Amino acid sequence: MSSREQPWSDADLAGDAVSKKDLLTYLHTHASNAFLVEKKLNGKLATVAKNAKRPALISAYTDLFASGSFREEGEVPVEEMNKASDTKSATADSEADKDATSAETAVPETPKFKKVTLRKGDKVNFPKKGDTVSVWYTGCLSNGKVFDSLVESKKKKTRPLRFKIGAGKVIRGWDEGLRVMSVGEKAKLTIESDWAYGSKGLVEAGIGKNEPLIFEVELVSIQ
Predict the structure, then answer these.
(1) Where do you find CATH 3.10.50.40 in the chain?
(2) Residue 147 bears catalytic tag
(3) Which of 31, 62, 191 is nearest to 115 (CA)?
């Protein structure tokens, strides 16, 4: 659980002292980009503020401190990513006339997975880079065909898959997707091919080139 001090108390949130803009600005400044994507709060501040409801923002603020999903050092805040994207779009025409060797400002990748929670976890313990996790899973192609599965069985003595987050032992969609799951949570991860097996695919598993994958994953534990 995060040890950061909350800038607003429950009483502040219950009253009118904290506006929607205050909440959203804090979340955009301090929350990880993956957390904002999960809560559907990524995007331009003005647009999100227009569509977001105050109770949802308060809930996201509370979940941020419960999960500790704060922006890591070096991670570009979502608002800066949006500004960089706007700048790139606005200057696209003029850039075409410049020297081809001029470098554009690199913009961090947008997460290439979607998560749908099937069963809630404890909302407290989230894996971070370097943690070893244990998971049950079933992997399917977009047509529903199962290509791999490891699930708990009463008939057979099976053990969940164990691996270290961020060590490159699994596809990137897993490394990133599991970091926004809490212990006990079961979720469906739909992963774009870029964060799966890419243009090469995985022939032995029947995974074609540039094929998105769908996993049902249960986060059993974090060591």
Answers:
(1) 113-222
(2) yes
(3) 191
Which CATH topology does 1-110 take? 1.10.720
- Lookup: tokens for 124: 């407290």
> Does residue 65 carry a catalytic annotation?
no
113-222: CATH architecture: Roll (3.10)
Q: What is the pTM of this model?
A: 0.55
Catalytic residue, chosen from 137, 165, 207, 214, is: 137
Q: What is the pLDDT of residues 13-57, one digit of tens each?
A: 888 888 888 888 888 888 888 888 888 888 788 888 888 888 999
215 is catalytic: yes
- 137 catalytic per annotation: yes
Catalytic residue selected from 58, 65, 131, 147: 147
User: Is residue 64 within 8 Å of 31, Cβ to Cβ?
Assistant: yes
Q: What angle do CA 45, 46, 52 make, to 5 degrees?
A: 80
Q: What is the pLDDT of residue 12?
A: 85
End-to-end CA gap in the chain: 15
